[in-house]
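Hi P.,

Sorry for the delay on this. The queue was packed all week, but I finally got your sequence through. Input first:
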Amino acid sequence: MMQAINISLRYGDRVLFKEVNLKFTKGNCYGIIGANGSGKSTFLKVLSGEIEPNKGEIFISPNERLSVLVQNQNAYDSNTVLETVMLGHKKLSEIEKLKNELYSKSDFSDADGIKVSELEEEYALLGGWEAESEAKTLLKEIGIDEKYFDKLMADIDPKHKVKVLLSQALFGNPDILVLDEPTNNLDFKAVRWLENFLLDFENTVIVVSHNRHFLNKVCTHICDVDYSEINMFLGNYDFWYETSQLLLRQTAEQNKKSEQRAKELKDFIARFSANASKSRQATSRKKELEKLTIEDFKPSNRKYPYIDFKFEQGIGKEILIVKNLTKHGYFNNISFSINPEDKIAIISSNALAVTMFFDILSGRETADSGNIHWGKTIKFSYLPQDNREYFENNKNSIADWLRHFSKDQTEMYIRGWLGKMLFSGDEALKPVDVLSGGERVRCMLAKLMLENGNFLMLDEPTNHLDLESISSLNKGMINFKGPLIFSSHDLELVETVANRIFDLVDENTFIDKAGVLKV
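Then the structure:
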């Protein structure tokens, strides 16, 4: 068990946490959510002991081992892949080091023999003799080929490093597992493997993630970081979100009787608990959900941007026809046509190939060969993954920046749009060259909405966005009446939006298939 007791943390005048009290128990997975900058990752550092709070303490049950996902990809560059995983169990590694030092002594004494015997016993109790085999199994299952096991971490690809460091955190069956964005840069298969691993994991998991599918799959509880408080709720992310939205609607309709509000909430809980089989403890969760009452909930203060893509120009039957499109080093002889009803997700293990694909379709790059034919009625809007050109060395305020893309130049109209994207008051006067990654993407989404394109191309649109913005974008893409093509590592976005998949398997293999993604 881990417990946060009266935790308070502030930096100058900014209060991150105020008297936070939470208990994390065995058999549960706790998802930490909150807006960008709310302090989610900082709270994990407090839990792991990396940051000392101004007030309060973290209690961990005696003899329980805490394991943390290391964020610095270069921290183990001088170690081999296999060594890096095994270093995840610090106590075991220390014992092995002491054993080897004693065995290598030229003046090995009777006292040394007694000490080694004690170490050997502890080593066996900690699973030392099976450790190397377990580490190899973890690496293989997460997708690391055996040929990399003896390579130095400095010599392997960054996409392999994240898998090795994740294996390190999972190694040795820790009692408490703390994971900060564990699905970042993982391919779909690795994410599915991690989900299944955590579903079978019997100890405590505390995780920060912007991956809604992941949170829905593995979480038994949601901890919402909001206005310097952290409130814990039973259920996964969808249950927390839908309950919060219901309560917000009820709060807005003040004339509703409390009995009617309570009935709506109970009906919702009943519907959700019937679907609790998604969770790891399906039966017990269902019973707990059924016991919830309206007093157990309060509306979240979280704000959601308004994302709704409209277009004025009608869509004809001819959208886009591509024939034998080739860019050497990326893809060869790609051919396809897009229909008015298509919502296409493009996936690949090579993110650079996907971006090149989008840049060629948008005219930013030129193909080596092949033809691209756009329908006469099509006006496309493109959200590039790299948006720096729109913001760097630009001293314009957000309001003036957005005005460049709007037919209506009036201050009231521009401020209205910025308010929809959560830039209110003086925030609209911030120069765009100092915006965060998430703020930039929200600006780009406002630009897209003002362009009124009837075909959308979105390259990793959820990058840098918080869960609230991702949820709003997801709804906007589902509700869009025109065709679109997008790439995303957000599995929820892919599964709920796409009705067709383009898979750039490798440079010479392109698969076009109808239906949702299967991994």
